[in-house]
Amino acid sequence: VRSSAASDVYKRQGINAEYGEKFGMNKTETSVSLYSRKVLIQNKASGILPEWLRFVKGVVDSEDIPLNLSREHLQDSALIRRINNVLTKKILKFLETEAKVSADSYNSFYQEFGNFLKEGIYSDFKWKDELAPLLRFESSKVAAGELTSFDEYISRLKESQTEIYYLVIPSRQLAESSPYYESFKKSETEVLFMYTSIDDLVFTNLAEYQGKKLVSIETLKADATNTNYDSENRLSDQECDQLSAWFRDVLKDQVSTVKPTNRLVDSPVMILDHESGTFRRMMRLMDPNKSQTISKQQLHYNPAHPVIMQLNSIRRSKPDLSQLIAQQLFDNALIAAGLMDDSRSIIPRVNKLIEQALRAQKE
Questions:
Q1: Which residues pair with 213 in a beta bridge?
Q2: pLDDT for 192-205, tens place per residue?
Q3: E strands along the chain, which residues?
Q4: Could you give the CA distance from residue 363 to residue 360 in angstroms, rounded to a whole number?
């Protein structure tokens, strides 16, 4: 292959302007044809590029490929593997240069074809280090709709920060109102927002970037603040111990741990270190008839939240109402974590809570 072959593929033919996979259509087929001395060897040649680069269009002409090479030998040819390696490097180098020289143009490309690059990270370990700098995300530090990169995130890191924080969630609106984001917002710590099902796979396979671990803010180890609440405006340590024990008794089949936390600002409860809601939804799509059980969760509550403080004050005098509230708080945390398969199951309890609230107003 001539040294200019891969760049010729881009300049003369290029990248498909759009693809059908995102609309649920059939998988995009490779559009690269293989020639030897200007003689067509194979149209839509598989193996010339990795499958995750199937959006690239063009032709490859190599004088080293024998004209009588069969399709079977084509698949196992060391030369084809070498061509694959050379072309992939050139294409990724082209994208890297494009991202630096024309950021707006690259971001437009990424909006359309970014999922292919993500696929490369979780399906082709060999290229993940070259692909990672090409990824783009929304972030708490950029306006909605704008994109940023790992390198730009690192350039804005706080001096003491050694991790890259992220949140996978269906939309930016949900991200910014998520209980997991509250302490990061308060401490002005940047969080990357991602909205697609494959992002969990991408970040799990990457694990780190330039020596900095990628940490989901839904985990226990992601802690952006050490806020100490005024002791007069929160439950005491003794009250927290008692309330935690009460929660464990009420939710004994649903929780493994109940603890107070300083990570919450506006929300009363959250679940930490839970299974991925994205993976759970993917498993449900793969086998919709199989019931997905929820394992016991780690429940953390805000000892300074009015709901928690009031719940602690009535849990003995109004046990039935308190238990309804505790169960509702737990289910709210499941919903925020993306673990509630069907939120319609909570409607009867919500109706009971409304009924009791209205009855209290009459009294």
A1: 163, 208
A2: 999 988 899 899 99
A3: 14-15, 31-36, 39-42, 56-61, 138-139, 163-168, 192-194, 208-209, 212-216, 255-260, 269-272, 297-301
A4: 5
For residues 205 and 199, give the distance between their C-alpha atoms in angstroms, rounded to a whole number. Answer: 10
Assess contact for 161 and 169: CB atoms under 8 A.
Answer: no
At 294, list the tokens: 């929820």
For 230-256, how does the pLDDT look when each residue is reduced to its tens digit (9 = 90+)? Answer: 557 899 999 999 999 999 999 999 999
Please give the backbone phi and psi of residue 32, each rounded to the nearest 5 degrees, phi first: -105, 125
Beta bridge partners of 56: 15
Q: What share of residues in the chain are helix, strand, coil (percent, to 5)? A: 50, 15, 35
Considering only CA atoms, which of 39, 136, 52 is closest in space to residue 87? 52
pLDDT in tens, 137-183: 999 999 999 999 999 999 999 888 999 999 999 999 999 999 999 99
- Cα–Cα–Cα angle for 171, 177, 180, rounded to 5 degrees: 95
Tell the residue number behind the tokens 């598989």, with chain if given. 46
